[in-house]
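Render this sequence as a predicted structure.
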Amino acid sequence: MIGTYFKRFAPQTLYGRAAAILLLPMLTLQLAVAAVFVQRHFEDVTVQMTNNLLLEIKMVLDELNDRSIEDVARTSARTLNLDLHEWDGVASDNAPVFYDISGRTIMPMLFKNLDRVKDVDLSNLDQVTIGVQSAKGPIEIVFSRYRVSASNPHQVLVLMVFTGVFMTVIAFLFLRNQLRPIKLLSLASAAFGRGHSVAFNPSGAIEVRAAGQSFLNMRDRIERQIEQRTIMLSGVSHDLRTPITRLQLGLELLGGPEVQDLKKDVDSMRLMVDSFLNYARDSAADPVADVDLVALVSDLGERSDPPIHPQVVGLPRLIALRSVPIARAIENLLVNALRYGDQVRILICFEAHDIVIYVADNGPSIPADQREQALKPFMRLEAARGQNQGNGVGLGLTIAADVARSHGGVLILNDSAELGGLSAEMKLPL
């Protein structure tokens, strides 16, 4: 419970947490040293030096019982480095400056241990002036501040602060160099999740280099598997086109009502093979480049029947995408929407960290418990929007979802609040 409460105030980034781990012990140590130093050096030493000076002042005051002020000032006071002269008895009302730590110890001691003290002036950090009622009337005694306080006591604190700041900067620079390989590894993995393969060279500590090398090995295995899958799909699809063409030619020479059903099955097989072949070819050949998504979607909408004009929310900007697979995915969503509805709406939202493409229609929707299955290949649904209706082969949503995942995004199916049908939401990260 307590750990969860403090986590809300903890830094969220690795740099922030590392800086907190570095700074908190150093600040705690400096505060502890400063507290001990102030107590031992400022207070204890000041008390001891003030007590010694009080003995000298009392001796001078005792001599004033029998001698004149001028005589004591020339002899005993001068020998003790005390400046003694007459005083008008008017208090100075000068308070110590706010950073005068030792002054807050000196003043109470003078009033407490010297009964005849009437005024203490600590406004000058180099000297102390006290007003005393003596046997010869009010007098003023001036002496050096260093007789009751250590010389330049603030230098230790200043030196400690500047040394701490300097070492913190050095440690932070070193820490940044140690964290840079982790940040580069994070950027490389995030880019690979969006379909980009950026150059990455493992560096840093042994554990970081091991993690970086493991990432490179994993990326190589995934890229080989994707390449092998693409080659296999392309090869199988290409090899199947010849026998399918032969079947179509053979069926054209036959007659009978059962032949029509066979022709539909062959057409579905041909459409399925073409979909596989086009998807494999697009994924393998198209590089990542900056794409004007608004222009791409507008072109696809113009070619639709009827034409659809996309709506844009936010500030349009270029995005690093594989343009051909993205176009194929959006086209599949448009074809799917036009197949089941007569009203289709396209909305492109440019958000802070994501770009979302909504394709909604007014046709029958997909039940919420079947939407995950609808994204699987060749899955046939029993609802009115099942793939057994129309000319589809059950790969349109699957390919669109796979394209979104290859760019680090996701395809989400929901009910359209505006049109009442299905809303396909493709979210791509910036």
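Summary. The two ends are 36 Å apart (CA to CA). Confidence is low (pLDDT under 50) at residues 386-391.
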